[in-house]
Structure formats: structure tokens, C-alpha cells
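Subject: design request, 436 residues
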């Protein structure tokens, strides 16, 4: 535990005090952690490489294609059109709540990283056009995305936990929505009231000049193209949930519903609807896509560095020591689940790894004790897996780099929001446990 703490402190000092590039800092700390935690010299490099490859293998396609789609949505004027429609409907006064509602709705079927890179252009379009504080407007929407990622099926973490605890998917989703709504409101719009004066100059790649009305794509075109990934995932989830029998059509739907395939189809459609159809040449579109990838290249490396650090800690077996210590304590099972997930999350950075690891430890306990509600255990662990996002979490760096914040202000905004979500989520689970 002391070694983990010292490594995290070293990482923070290298990035914030020494001003070292975060990717290099991750590599240095990952190797140092491997040495201190007793990983053989011949295997430390392998752990780092496996961590880099594992996280990039999952995220590179999604983030790159999402950045391209986001850049096109911004440059084509589609984000501007969507923002205008939302503001006209809700009014500037309530635009923050409108964005929160959109974030929650699309967050249920959409993987977090896809939702993030899709919604950033919309957030920034509202920020630039109406001269609003970026963090104040953007954080509540991202709080909605984060809650759905941690609490609600069909996201990977909650879905895995539902299976491990033999919980009911529908019941977990229903309870999850009941817990999610107050968590989003309090950690989103309410907490964001304290961030109105936080300085932020968001990533320039998504900043586009206001286009004249006659140059903007239509409202239906803008909404449908921007939300096409959501539509595809929702449709496939409904079909796969209704038809369980194996068939060629079901196999095809499973393939088409995979995140990278969904993003590729969406980008191909957007290339026509927001590009070719709008009389934009393929050369210009190619430049837009190249610029988008250049702008997120460092973000990818930073996330990869976080993956390397996580893998070194996992390979050292330190998560097993943490869990052995906690399971020897006698406490409320739902609170224990939250605490296990929280400590592993703080140590390793990955919400999904934290949730699944905590569930593995508590699986037999939940199976043997009928007084433990398995649906609430899914939510309790999901809430704990979101707490205290910091420098070993890819989401921390996504938010910092996209919103161009200092380390300190990222802690004061993003880390605080995630921690509030986790604590409020636990409170909601304990209240539900008293009635169900």
C-alpha cells in the first residue's frame, strides 16, 4: 500500500511540479512501481507493453473515429445547428439541463469514450456561441455519461457484475436509474454552480466559426448523423435482447453492434450527409480527419501510459493483497463492495477493472447470503468504481486535455464530480436497501 501511495505521489509530482510530459511520467513510474513491487526485471517491460497494448487496442479505433466524427460535426456546422435548436427549445437559461438530459439518454446505450468524443463538439459549440463557461456547461453532461457508465447496463462493467451476481438486468437498470438521477443532478448542475469562474480554453480542434444559416445542414440531418451511433446501438441492443436464438442475422447484428464497427459506419454515413451532400470535397474531408487525429494523438499516449501503470500493479498482485485485507473486516456487505471497488479504483485507475475485481471477491458471499440484494450490490460496486478519478485514470486525462485545464483544476472539477457521484450513488443504494 505504501509503495502504491508513493508511486501515485511521484506521478503527481512529475506531471505537476517537474512539468514532465505525462506519457513519459507514466513510463517512469510504471517501471519504478514494477521494481519496487517485486516484478522480475525480465517481466517489467512486458507488463508495460501489455498495458499499453491492452488499453490502446480497445480505445484507439473508437477515439480516433470519434474524433473524426466530432471534428466533422463541428466543422460542418451540425453542432452549431444542434445547439441552436436546443437553445431555441429550452432557452439559454436551461441549456445546461438540456445537455444533461441528452448526456443521460445517449449514455445508456453508448460506451463512455464514444459518448465523450461525440458530445464534446456539442458542448464546445454551445460554449463558443453563447460565451458560457466551458467547465460549468460541460461537466454536468459528462457527469451523466459517467453515471451511466458506472451504474447502468448495458455498459461492460455493470453488465459483467449482473452476470457474476446472478442479478436481473431489468431490475438493476430500474434501480440504477433511480440512483442515477439524484447523483447526476447533485454532482452535475448543482456542483457545477461552484465552477462558473474556473478558467478553461477548450481544445481548439473543436472550435469552429459560426456559419451563416444557409450554409448549415438541416436540423434532422444534424441530429440523426450526430446520434447515429446511439441509434445503431439502441436498435441492436433491443434486437439482441428480444431474440436470443442463434442465427446468421443475430451474428451479423452482434458484429454490427461492436463499438468500432458502429463508429466506422457512423463516420461513413457522416462523410456523405455532412460532407459530400454539403458539397465538401473529399480532399477537405481528408484534411479534417487528419487534423482530428493529430489533435488527439497525445491524449492516446497519455491514456496508454495510464494503462501501463495499471498493468504493472495488476501483474504485481497488489490488488489481491488489498482485497484480502478488506475482506477480513466485518461491515455491511453493500458498503464493503463499495469500499473494495473504491480502493482498487484509486490504486489502478480503471473503473471496469475495479468493479470486476471487487465482484470476484464478493461473488461467493452474495451467493451464500440471501439477505444481500444482488441488484443493489451491482450498483454499490459500480458507484465505488467511479470514486476519486485521478492521474492513473484515462478519463481524468481526456477531460483535462479536451478542456485544456491545469492539473489542479482538473482535480477540483473532474475528480470532485466523480467522487460526488460515487458517494451519492452509495447513499442512494443504502436508501433503496431499506425499502426493497
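Subject: RE: design request

Done. Sequence follows.
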Amino acid at each position: 500500500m505504501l509503495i502504491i501511495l508513493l508511486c501515485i505521489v511521484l506521478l503527481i509530482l512529475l506531471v505537476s511540479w517537474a512539468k514532465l510530459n505525462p506519457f513519459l511520467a507514466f513510463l517512469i513510474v510504471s517501471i519504478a512501481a514494477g521494481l519496487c513491487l517485486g516484478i522480475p526485471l525480465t517481466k517489467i517491460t512486458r507488463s508495460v507493453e501489455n498495458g499499453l497494448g491492452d488499453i490502446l487496442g480497445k480505445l484507439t479505433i473508437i477515439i480516433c473515429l470519434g474524433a473524426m466524427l466530432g471534428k466533422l460535426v463541428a466543422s460542418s456546422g451540425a453542432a452549431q445547428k444542434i445547439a441552436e435548436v436546443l437553445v431555441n427549445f429550452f432557452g439559454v437559461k436551461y441549456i445546461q439541463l438540456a445537455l444533461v438530459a441528452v448526456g443521460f439518454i445517449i449514455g445508456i446505450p453508448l460506451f463512455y469514450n464514444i459518448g465523450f468524443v461525440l458530445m464534446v463538439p456539442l458542448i464546445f459549440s454551445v460554449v463558443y456561441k453563447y460565451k458560457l463557461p466551458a467547465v460549468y456547461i460541460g461537466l454536468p453532461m459528462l457527469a451523466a455519461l459517467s453515471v451511466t457508465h458506472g451504474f447502468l447496463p448495458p455498459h461492460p462493467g455493470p453488465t459483467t457484475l449482473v452476470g457474476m451476481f446472478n442479478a436481473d438486468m431489468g431490475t438493476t437498470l430500474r434501480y440504477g436509474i433511480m440512483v442515477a438521477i439524484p447523483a447526476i443532478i447533485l454532482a452535475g448542475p448543482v456542483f457545477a454552480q461552484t465552477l462558473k469562474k474556473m478558467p478553461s480554453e477548450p481544445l481548439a480542434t473543436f472550435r469552429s466559426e459560426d456559419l451563416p444559416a444557409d450554409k448549415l445542414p438541416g436540423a434532422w440531418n444534424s441530429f440523426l448523423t450526430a446520434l447515429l451511433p446511439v441509434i445503431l446501438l439502441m436498435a441492436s441492443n433491443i434486437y439482441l435482447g428480444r431474440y436470443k436464438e442463434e442465427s446468421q442475422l443475430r451474428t451479423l447484428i452482434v458484429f454490427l453492434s461492436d463499438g468500432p464497427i458502429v463508429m466506422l459506419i457512423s463516420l461513413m454515413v457522416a462523410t456523405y450527409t455532412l460532407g459530400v451532400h454539403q458539397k465538401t470535397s473529399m480532399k477537405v474531408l481528408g484534411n479534417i480527419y487528419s487534423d482530428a487525429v493529430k489533435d488527439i494523438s497525445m491524449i492516446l499516449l497519455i491514456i496508454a501510459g495510464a494503462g501501463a501503470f495499471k498493468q504493472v500493479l495488476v501483474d504485481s498482485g497488489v490488488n489481491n493483497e488489498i482485497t484480502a485485507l478488506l475482506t477480513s473486516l466485518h461491515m455491511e456487505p453493500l458498503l464493503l463492495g463499495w469500499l473494495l471497488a473504491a480502493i482498487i479504483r484509486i490504486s489502478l485507475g480503471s473503473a471496469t477493472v475495479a468493479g470486476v475485481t471487487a465482484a470476484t471477491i464478493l461473488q461467493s458471499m452474495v451467493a451464500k447470503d440471501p439477505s444481500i440484494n444482488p441488484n443493489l450490490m451491482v450498483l454499490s460496486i459500480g458507484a465505488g468504481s467511479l470514486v476519486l478519478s485521478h492521474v492513473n485514470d484515462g478519463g481524468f486525462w481526456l477531460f483535462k486535455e479536451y478542456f485544456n485545464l491545469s492539473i489542479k483544476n482538473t482535480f477540483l472539477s473532474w475528480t470532485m464530480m466523480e467522487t460526488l457521484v460515487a458517494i451519492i450513488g452509495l447513499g442512494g443504494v443504502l436508501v433503496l436497501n431499506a425499502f426493497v
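Residues 338 and 381 are 5 Å apart (CA to CA).
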